């Protein structure tokens, strides 16, 4: 899929996937986000970061997560009614670094229509946040609310 | 615990818990974060939000997550070497709303020293993000890296 479509529960099938557009993360953005939400030396101070677990400036995992959301919302098919996650499993196998160019690959893992509410259902989506070299920066397997196409 | 301490793996035991300081989230902050990272009407436009699933302005779940991290990093005991999460289960049972005053309660669920690397270990922490009325806005059960006290 390259065009922006409006997705309903009726449209998705297991195995379906799409890739988002890309975004490049800069050191300044990493530091700004870090100062606001995750003020630790490895996210806010390149010099001090060298002596930490990360060995250099790294983005807060929540920054990677927030950028992933932006790519989902703006860079792929639009889910009718909004992209609404209820819960999920989140992993950061590697740290996001200054200059990383990220995109998101979404794969539909399951589709479960609601028994009690016929206008909606849940999908499990595997959301991979990847660099251009294919390194996995974040894996989010999320339970997402989808609505059915209005009759 | 009310004072800021430096925590090592040696210091934590199952069942130990602490509460962070508090932060109040405003409509302006919700909209600003939404425009930057999660541009959907229910996060960016109070009028348009009324007709959505949320029935009014709601914070992006990633905004709740980022504020939770800020409270963890600045409002409770400091973990030696940094607060570094590797993976976890994330749930948003209710939406964060303008005016919510949030704090974080952390409970240690397990402590596992590394077999291969004697200087560190993993803890499972239950991180609850709560309003002053005790409503649960986010639950994050996270695998966290902790270092041992240097000998």
Please explain how this structure is put together.
2 copies of one chain form a homodimer. The first copy, chain A, is of the alpha+beta class. Chain A has one domain (6-25, 58-147): Hotdog Thioesterase (Thiol Ester Dehydrase, Chain A, Roll). The first copy, chain A, is built from 4 helices and 7 strands; from the N terminus they run E-E-H-H-H-H-E-E-E-E-E. The first copy, chain A, has helices at residues 27-37, 41-44, 46-49, 61-74, and strands at 6-7, 17-24, 78-79, 84-91, 101-113, 120-131, 136-147. Chain A has a 5-stranded antiparallel beta sheet with strand order 2-5-6-7-4, covered by helices on one side. The two termini of chain A are 25 Å apart. Chain A binds chain B through residues 33, 36-42, 52-53, 60-62, 65-67, 69-70, 73-74, 81-92, 145, and chain B through 33, 36-42, 52-53, 60-62, 65-67, 69-70, 73-74, 81-92, 145.
Name the features.
homodimer, 151 residues, Thiol Ester Dehydrase, Chain A, five-stranded antiparallel sheet, 4 helices, 38% strand, elongated
Quick gist of this model?
Chain A is an alpha+beta fold. Chain A has 4 helices and 7 strands, in the order ββααααβββββ.
**Unreliable sequence segments of chain A:** none
Number of strand elements of chain A: 7
The CATH class of chain A is Alpha Beta
Strand order of the largest sheet of chain A: 2-5-6-7-4
Number of helices of chain A: 4
CATH architecture of chain A: Roll
Q: How large, in whole angstroms, is the Cα Rg of chain A? A: 17 Å
Average pLDDT level of chain A: 93
Structural class, from secondary structure content of chain A? alpha+beta
| Chain oligomer state | homodimer
> Mind describing the biggest β-sheet of chain A?
5 strands, antiparallel
SSE arrangement of chain A, N to C? EEHHHHEEEEE
Please indicate the count of domains of chain A.
Answer: 1
Largest interface: A-B, 33 and 33 residues
- Which percent range fits the helix content of chain A? 10-25%
